[in-house]
Peptide chain release factor 3 (Dethiosulfovibrio peptidovorans DSM 11002), 534 residues
Amino acid sequence: MTVSNSSELKRQIERRRTFGIISHPDAGKTTLTEKLLLFGGAITMAGAVKSRKASRHATSDWMSIEQERGISVTSSVMKFEYRDYEINLLDTPGHKDFSEDTYRVLTAVDSAVMVIDSVKGVEEQTRRLMEVCRMRNTPIMTFVNKLDREGMSPLEVMSDIEETLQIECAPLTWPVGMGKGYKGTYDIYRKKLTLFRAGFESLREQDMVTEISDLSDPRLDELLGSQADDLRGDVELLEGAANPFDLDDYLKGSQTPVFFGSAVNNFGVKEMLDSFVEIAPCPGPRKTTTRTVSPDEEEFSGFVFKIQANMDLAHRDRLAFMRICSGKFQRGMKVKHHRIGKDITMSNPTIFMAQDRELVDEAWPGDIVGIHNHGTIKIGDTFTDKEPLQYTGIPSFAPEHFRRVRLDSPMKSKQLHKGLLQLSEEGAIQVFRPINDNIFILGAVGVLQFDVAVARLKAEYSVDASYDSTPYSVARWVRCDDLKKMAEFEKTQQNNLAKDSADQLVYLAANNWDLKYVENHWPEVQFLKTCEHS
Ligand code: GDP
């Protein structure tokens, strides 16, 4: 390996921030995204991000899925500049289209921002996404949203986060009041008070900010009236009781800095963005099966974390999203596609702007580049200049929904086979074959994946298929070092065992209770929620 002396490479790495926003539907992710893009100048008009959402809930016939994809691809990665930073915001689809992609995107980010609705506290989907962040100890910043509504008190929200998500909270800003009495945000570290005005869309800080270096300053009483004393009391309490912010703990993923605000009113967002660019990590080293690769190594490397199929009906090609991990990427460069032992030329690489995609001439670690292909690229594939590397940490996630495939066009079983293999390689759906039954069971994290699979089987492989229900709701990959025990396990549990498309053994259970029971009876066997692509 050659560590580059190129100061350009180092500079480009240091100014990059690649992150995703995690939240439960309706907490305010789209609204926050839009405000961030406004600050970055990537969009000029409020409502630009919203518009894609309106079409998201269209009926799930093939064309609308196709259309949704066309829309969602431009918004899959949003690149914008803020101060001297280049920010890549990766969309983690929520709502109905919640899928494995949502999880997998998080393997390609360096940090995440978690949005919590102050009225509802921590919700289910946030909890699940947080579990995925935990796998790589991804640093997480928290934005507590909707302070303009009557919700939980700031302390209650923080203790909910700490208890439910098992992560320490360190407030960096503090709200003055909430709901109708919401007056503003006090920046604990910069000692600035920003006053709230509903519907105020100005981006000019000087309109709203007052520096308060000493909380006993009588100006505070003029500005906040009786709430001035409440703020004084809160800050005094925090100084004694709250966790002080610790950069190392944040970077390790054990502490989350917390910001309070109201995304729809563009309030508290700038404070978070300013702290984000300053403290969120730039692209760091990443593990491969053989060694850890530093981003400033001269040799180019990257891996594919998402594949989007057939976005253009006329071309039927697939777009693979590659995260650059080291070196400089250049348009037209030849790279090794190690899994299939071929060289490929990066002839039409695409980057994604807020509302557009365009060809890219060069890109750097942390950037996401889209490469066109005709089905040869698989999730997890690694590309490099020369060295045969395979990045790790791009797993499959145990599906939560299952369907049995019914072939309605009986002569097409070969095409069905081929189509399902292809779809599983793209990560669109997981395919299981029970070891004692000649059927296909599909597994998905989000149910929309099933609609997409059937629609694509028809459109691309001319296969008419539909679904029957299955008795399963839980899957775990199974491993055991003791081969004898494993053979015994396979023999007695064969009715619940299946192979995935990579021939890995999977245990399918009707529910968590059944799974627990089997786990207790087979302590030598590991039941895994994730499985690495290799
Ligand atoms: P997403 O599903 O997480 O992307 O959430 P959205 O950004 O679409 O927001 C869901 C709803 O909450 C929308 O009606 C927003 O207008 C509203 N919303 C977002 N931020 C705020 C806020 O700060 N205060 C209030 N009251 N509503 C908000």
